Amino acid sequence: MSKKEEKRLKIIEVTADLCIRNGYQGTSVDELTSKTGFSKATIYRYFNSKECLISETLRHYANKYSDSLKELINNPELSLEQKVDELFERLRQLVVNDQFYGCYFQLAYSEFCNKDEDIASTCTQYKQGRIDLITEMLVKHHVDDAHLKAVKAELIYSGLIASLPITKNTALIDIAKEMYLREIF
User: Fold this and answer.
1) What's CA 127's distance to the chain center, in Å?
2) Dihedrals phi, psi of 51, to nearest 5 degrees
3) Is 24 within 8 Å of 111 (Cβ atoms)?
4) End-to-end CA distance of the chain, in Å?
5) Which residues form the HTH tetR-type domain (predicted)?
6) Residue 16's domain is classified under what CATH number?
7) Alpha helices of 47-116 — where are they, by DSSP H?
8) How many domains does the chain have?
9) Backbone angles phi, psi at 110, to 5 degrees
10) Mean pLDDT over the full length of the chain
11) Most CB atoms closer than 10 Å: which of 90, 105, 125, 134?
12) What is the pLDDT of residue 82?
């Protein structure tokens, strides 16, 4: 990775961390400069505006999370139930290690749905992409009504994601996983 790519990635990672903790609109470029050690000029050299930075940050994490989910889905050694177990176990580890603050996409959408079409669209595309990937997984495992079941399962998962930052109750993960499995089988 080039120095330029490293700087860009650091800006994106720090932006994500600050925004999930403070909200997107509650995060300032001044705070970002303080945490990254980069000047405003450097940040704006990579990103034309704060909204552009947020949009690029969301796209980066959408790709990262989607790639991780694709890897899990395409693992031929795991059964469908094992794939679902792994999906929920990854989330559990984030919560247990105090590294989970909520869904970047739900938060961004709630803050920008009426203010920035690009950000809102990125969030919508990510959520639809998850449904498509879960549908693909269910089809690969010969589950009937795969799309409808994927939509229902992702509603369960999204509800869990929305609840965990508030409750920090890992027992919800087991409850949601049980509901998810019931929905897809």
Assistant:
1) 9
2) -65, -40
3) yes
4) 43
5) 5-65
6) 1.10.357.10
7) 50-73, 80-96, 104-112
8) 1
9) -65, -30
10) 97
11) 134
12) 99
